[in-house]
Amino acid sequence: MNVKTRAKLGTGSVFKAEAPTPPTTSEQRTTREGRDGKKALPFWVPVAAKKQLAMLAIEEDTTQQELLTEALNDLFRKRCKPPIA
Length: 85
Description:
By secondary structure, the protein is mostly helical. The chain has a domain at 41-85. It has three helices and no strands. The N and C termini lie far apart (50 Å).
């Protein structure tokens, strides 16, 4: 914001927005609890399927993460693999 704009807004204060400094090494990054040893697995689904998953999570008072983990483990069992998700 320049001086003229501040004058129009009636404020004389100067704002300094400082962006957070990004981590320089992977050791400095913090991960959310429970994500150690895990990787994201994004994939595309129809919008209707995403909405249905969200509604199912609400109806069952659980998270989409829990439902997808259950589904992945069911797939592993179906294919005679250990449920490790």
